[in-house]
Amino acid sequence: MGRFAQAEELEVKVVQHFSAMLGSEHPETLVSMTNLASTYRNLGGWKEAEALEVEVMKTRMKTLGQEHISTLTSMANLASTYRSLGRWKEAKELEVKVMERMQRVLGQEHPFTLTSMGCLALTNQEQGQWKDAEDLGLRGVEISLRVLGREHPSTLACMSNLASLYRDQGRWKDAEKLELQVVEISSKVLGMEHPSTLSSMANLATTYRDQGRWKKAEQLELQVLEKTTESLGKEHPSTLTSMANLATTRRLQGRWKEAEEMELQVVEIRKGTIGEEHPDMLSSIAGLVLIYRDQGRWSEAEKLGLQILNTSSKLLDQEHPLLLTNMGNLAAVFRDRGQWKQAEELELKVLETRKKTLGDEHPDTITSIANLASTYRKQGKWKEAAELETYVVKKREEVLGCEHPSTLTGMVSLALTYKSQGQWGRARELETQVVETRKRVLGLEHPSTIAGVASLASTLLCQGEWKEAEKQFAEAKEASSRLFGQEHPLTHTSMANLATVYRNQGRWKEAEDLEVQVLNMRTRTLGCKHPETLISMNNLASTYQKQGRWKDAEEIELKVVRTCLEVLGQEHPTTLASTASLALTYKNQGRLKNAEELELQAVSTCSKVFGHEHPDTLTSMANLASTLRKQGRWEEAKGMDMCILEIRKRVLGQEHPDTNTSMISLACTYRDLGQWKEAEELEVQVMERDMNVLGPEHPFTITSMNNLASTYHKQQRLDKAEDLAVPLTETCQRVLGQHHPLTLSSMANLASLFYDQGRLEKAEELERQVMEARKNIFGLEHLDTLTSINNLAFTLKSQGRNDEAIGLMAQCAQGRKKKLGENHPHTVLSFQALEHWVKGLMADSSFVITSRAPGI
Questions:
Q1: Residue 408 in contact with residue 439, Cβ under 8 Å?
Q2: For residue 707, how many C-alpha atoms fall within 13 Å in the half-sphere facing its CB?
Q3: SS3 for 74?
Q4: Which InterPro entries match (predicted)?
Q5: What percent of the chain is modeled with pLDDT above 90?
Q6: Domain with 805 in it: what CATH number?
Q7: 800 lies in a domain?
Q8: Burial per residue of 792-801, b for 16 or more beta-carbon CB atoms within 10 angstroms, e otherwise
Q9: Is-contact 339 371, C-beta < 8 A?
């Protein structure tokens, strides 16, 4: 019943009794020592097991000879302990000797020989030497089938071992085919309740789980759990393993409460039966850590992760694979929490140890390199990340093959780094390859395929290919909903991604509808303090911002900031991002002091946590510079913009999107300072680069052309401005559609240009179109709508249509008062214009505010 502690107590007495009565070299004494060593192994006492097994092996070699079956069995037992200790070279040396001697003494086809081949194959598998492992596995299956027949337990064991190897290689169809055969034969020959049958069902369930076929996995695991509980009892190790497997499947389905409840049960039972320091106990706690990480309960995850590491450090050799795995898991928790220095420190330690013990090309070593690269990426050290990830992809292709899941995961990580560097073409190429391979190997509805499609769609979004991005995100959402249901985390993510596309397309009602659904579902399933819930709230607030619903946005953002501070702390990236979002809302409301206060705090925190040259620090500085510019503190803004641009050029390179953004910001400041030549030089550079890299129809290119046209306009170089503005508006209408925010913005700017050229009828025609479109899309009270009303009012006033102009300006003034407050500069200007017009004192005003003006 798994009562190993009681067994140990009895077996120690037996060993002492036989040693005293029969002597230390008697066969019965050696058998009792072997039994005690086996119990030590089950209790995780591998060093005690090793000491006994070495003694037994040496005694048998001396008394029975090198080739006696009992001697070879002792060698195999010791090799198994070495394997458990991660001492694979020593294990392999012994197992090669055992297999060769078995073949010589018993022949190639003896069951003991086949078992020795299986043990050596397993050690090869642990070392990532899969070709050698497969050669042995296939030979074992072939001999077993020929000599023992399909239904012999040894044949079934050989087939199961080979299936396990296929699973490790990501060859799930091959694994499933073998495992189905094993389950069918075991059920027929041994019965449904036999431990071997239940073990084969559990193996098949694992293969289903790895394929993302969670319902099928759960169905099998429930059967296994029911049968093991019935036949072995609740506290048997096999029953507890079944519970842990089922908990894992439920965690992957996003059913975290059920998973946690089950894993806690396992922990409590194991605490009572095997104690807190047993490897199986540490494995259960590690399962809890994963559940807590998924739920964003990082403090609890970190506490348990440290507990596991401290316990395993005490029990295991510093180079033991399990200890290194535990260090890697804790590093992942640190990475989740934004504690990248601690993560990097642990990952470097794990990497160095694995290189030393396993070699540079072992799968675990390569995984360590991939983890370190991920931490570098999070820190904005993209060059270092890309170098490591390129190496990871190359090595995995060589060792595992191009279609292995780990190879594809490495490609996705490298694509993510390329995206961070603004190298969208390279990212897209990799992601397209990944999606095509996953569709072919895993099928359209595998979780990894769905995630790959979403990743590719996000790159298309960055490239401005919104229609194609929408199509891909919609495909991912439909597949996820069909496969996992509406409330699965992957479905939520797919819906949130699709909402992002809608937001970028100016389809804010559709974006809002989806975001509200996602927020409600995440609040219900994850709780209101989960990081994913907070991200959903931020997304919805962003959509409200776009609609000019500042109060709604502010209300949500204040909640998010407070919760982030409470749950994640002031220095977490999500906290900093939510603070920046709130500052933007303040800025758009004209509450510049509030915005500045938050942004100064963000700059200080980012500088302290990430360093002065980290991308997040530079973004926070850019936000502050924007606020200074809005306050008319142009020299301060200029100094900050120049500093940011210099660092981004040096750190990110001339062609990185963030570098372009810095050039645009500095050009904007130059424009505010009336330094037209400097503004123009920068804007020409940005536009030409966007044209070359992104093409003439990309939203970034359209924006950069708009900016340059605006600079020409401000300089009264109206012909040059028109040469850019007319084709630009036509491009927007053709590519983005008549009602896209960028299209309406370019039409408004062109109307403003016509106004300054005295072409008032043309200006009026465009302004009416823009105003009506904005009313329909955003509503009458949106700031962009009010700007359109303002501009049309001025055009009508210039045509002498005073009554119409005054009516529109009154509407604009009241709308701005309601949205921005009576003291906001734009509100004040509207009321001043209205007062002058009513008094007849402003017959010919040149006062025009375009929709491109900051803060509107």
A1: no
A2: 31
A3: helix
A4: NLR-like (IPR053137), TPR-like_helical_dom_sf (IPR011990), TPR_rpt (IPR019734)
A5: 61
A6: 1.25.40.10
A7: yes
A8: bbbbbbbeeb
A9: no
Residues 855 and 743 in one domain: yes
8 Å CB contact between 753 and 718: yes
Look-up: residue for tokens 């090669």? 96
Q: Inter-axis angle of helices 489-504 and 508-526, to 10 degrees?
A: 160
Cα–Cα distance for residue pair 80/690, rounded to 1 Å: 61
Ramachandran sector of residue 523 (left: φ over 0; alpha: ψ -120 to 50; beta: rest): alpha
What is the residue-averaged pLDDT of the chain? 89
Segment (H or E) for 483: helix 466-484
Q: How far apart are CA 209 and CA 223, in angstroms?
A: 15
In angstroms, the CA 478 to CA 486 distance is: 10
Between 111-126 and 130-147, two packed helices, what is the crossing angle to 10 degrees? 160
State both tokens at 624: 């502050």
Same domain membership, residue 836 and residue 743: yes
Pick from 70, 63, 51: which is nearest to 24 by CA?
63
Q: How many domains does one find in the chain?
A: 2
Q: Residue 586 is encoded by which pair of tokens? A: 């303040």
Q: Report the pLDDT value the prediction gives residue 171, as an integer from 0 to 100.
A: 81
Please check whether residue 242 is in contact with residue 221, taking contact to mean a CB–CB distance below 8 angstroms. Answer: yes
Nearest to 819 by CA among 629, 597, 551, 605: 551
Q: Residue for token digits 């073949």?
A: 103
**pLDDT (0 to 100) of residue 543:** 93
Mean pLDDT score, 730-735: 89
Q: Which of 730, 796, 728 is nearest to 760 (CA)?
A: 796
Average pLDDT (451-468) is 88
Confidence of residue 3 (pLDDT cuts 50, 70, 90): low
Amino acid identity at 771: M
The total of other beta-carbon atoms located within 10 Å of residue 61's CB is 15
Q: Which domain holds residue 698?
A: 680-724
Helices 363-378 and 382-399: angle between axes, nearest 10 degrees: 160
pLDDT reported for residue 849: 38
H/E run at residue 191: none
Contact call for residues 119 and 95 (beta carbons, < 8 A): yes
CA-based Rg of the chain, rounded to a whole angstrom?
34
**Do 293 and 526 meet the contact criterion of CB atoms below 8 Å apart?**
no
